[in-house]
Amino acid sequence: MEKDSDDPEVLRLKKAAATADWATVREVLEARSEGEGRTELLWTVCDTAGVETWITDVAEAEPGAALPRLLAGLRHVSWGWEARTSARAKDVSREQFEVFHERLRTAERWLYEAAELEPGWASPWYCLQVSGRGLEVGPEVARRRFEATVRRAPHHLGAHQQQLQQVCRKWGGSHEEMHAFARTSALGAPGGTQLGQLVAVAHVEEWLSLDSGPDATYIGRPEVAASLNEAADHSYRHPDFVRRDGWLQVLNSFAMAFSLAGQREAARECFRAGEGRVTEFPWSYLNDSDPVAAYREWRSAAGR
Question: What are the phi and psi torsion angles at 192 (to 5°)?
Fold first, then answer.
């Protein structure tokens, strides 16, 4: 499964993070432009088990350095979600929630320190979007954190993905707000934008919220297909679309949305352009234990 895209630095960074090789972690991250370009690599480090055992020592040893604080914060975010798991809230124990919230509060302390040390960086504010959703900071604070990120990196895909989740009905928003945010963000960005993915994900989110029967009726509506095609034309179909961090997930998201919508030719186009490479998201929505199986099933159905 193509979880890490094709960035050659990912495996090197994973090994360095797992072995507490701070010199290599810092070298790789500092070579990447701050903001959206660094996002995937930050998650590579912070999704690595054991980073919490050494990164805070690095941060404390370098009191004026933002990067180890950023990593300490994001590792505590990831570590917090590990404790909570992806289960529905009703299936998460009180003890799990306590650990979850404790780790997120620790994360926020580190992230605010990073933001103070490097006021021009987008990454601390993006990470605060993730921790804030877990801490249920509310729509106003969440919006301020999103705006702080995009002031520094206007078309930051991760920031927009987080805000899309924030305005979903399941997180206290509404379908109307979610679709409006997705469409405005996607079509307001330059042609070739990765933000077109937001439109596809928004339709998948509404489909997921419906019972069997009404879900197929919704996703099969002509206006949904028209919306998906409008976003696709402004995104991966546009001549200015570039294969950079996140491009595979964009194609996989459209492949899934078009497949669910019964638009086989459009889905085939996405599967073909993605060269058979599957990303964990969004296929985990269909099969959390085996996203690859979900991908293969729908790719086969599309005739690819």
Answer: 90, 5
Among 108, 207, 197, residue whose Cα is nearest residue 161: 197
CA distance 12 to 6: 12
C-alpha–C-alpha distance, residues 199 and 155, integer Å: 15
Query: Each residue of 47-67: pLDDT tens digit?
Result: 999 999 999 999 999 999 999
Question: Is the distance from CB of 73 to CB of 107 less than 8 angstroms?
Answer: yes
For residues 120 and 115, what is the distance between their CA atoms, to the nearest angstrom? 8
User: From the CB of residue 65, how many other CB atoms can be counted at a distance below 10 Å?
Assistant: 16
Q: Quick one: CA dihedral 232, 195, 250, 144, positive or negative?
A: negative
| Confidence category of residue 294, pLDDT binned at 50, 70, 90 | very high
Residues 6 or more apart whose CB falls under 8 angstroms from that of 150 comprise 122, 156, 159, 160
pLDDT at 2 over 50: no
pLDDT digits (tens, 9 = 90+) for 74-83: 999 999 988 8
Cβ 259 vs Cβ 267: under 8 Å: yes
CA distances to 43, 86, 121, 219 from 270, rounded to whole Å, are 25, 28, 33, 18
Give backbone dihedrals phi and psi of 41, rounded to 5 degrees, phi first.
Answer: -70, -35
What pTM was computed for the model?
A: 0.93
CA 58 to chain centre: 27
Structure tokens at 18: 């797992």
* Closest by CA position to 279, among listed 246, 301, 302, 303: 246
Q: Does residue 132 carry a pLDDT above 50?
A: yes
Which spans in the chain are helix H?
9-18, 22-30, 36-46, 55-61, 66-84, 94-117, 123-135, 139-152, 157-166, 175-188, 197-209, 214-219, 222-234, 247-260, 264-273, 280-283, 291-301
